[in-house]
Amino acid sequence: MYESVSLIRKRKDQTMMLQKDRVALVTGAARGLGWGIARAFGIAGARVCVTDISDDELARCARDLAADGTDFQTCRSDVADLAECKSVVKQIVDRWGRLDVVVHNAIYMPLMTFEATTPEEWSHQINIGIGGLFNCTYAVWNQMKAQRGGHIIGIASGSSIRGFKEEAAYCTIKHGIEGFVKALSLEAKPYNIALNTIGPGVRIKPTRMTWAEYDQAPEELRASWADPVELGKAWVWLAAQPPSRFSGYRFDAANLVRTIAEEGSDFEFGVEKVTLYPDDFRARQEWYRSYTD
User: Fold this and answer.
1) Where are the domains of the chain?
2) What's the pTM value of the predicted model, to 2 decimals?
């Protein structure tokens, strides 16, 4: 079961803290992993904007952020709409003067066979999953260039590297996010903008499950899912790194959080400490070392 607010707050002084006045945007943050990432940023001292399309669940997220003592704002926004993404970025910059971290967590993931997938359904999933990452990046690009740096982080999963039945669109999205990050990291380097992905690396609550469904789930089942606030420390750690240190890579939260617990946030870096897929990480390191225009 997820940790209570009181337990999180008791541990606040022991949590890694971000540089003063850092600002983070987390999409799809009304529940689940996005909710946990947003709370982790707030607990680490960031100002946080959370977006989603569910007013009721955004309100629940807002109550939790308020209980944590986070300086936050909520925006009902559809990441598939570029104009709405631009509006969110403008609201954030108007309020806080900057935007340092964008975590694109929003996803629409119905399980369905290919034959049941209509062209409209396909487009809807793609427009949220990979289109949302493009839109958020496009909306924040000039702001991060002007700031001379920032972090854009997508969400990885096992579907980023493998295929599963009834996930044709979802696997396409997750593979596409990795390609986007690999390619754009090269163009972003001169501007000190880092693009990476982080996967949970452990079993989490199903993406499709609402808060109402979660509250009704058996306690034994809920206890089998990792605490998304705890996993959120991985996103905080990556956002605390200089953008020039890592860009174009895929991390896994469970490995990172375990390493931080054992060695502290300033641990001596090792590939196995930060990802379930060290061979992929090393292959990317070699590619970036050898890459020429």
Assistant:
1) 18-290
2) 0.92
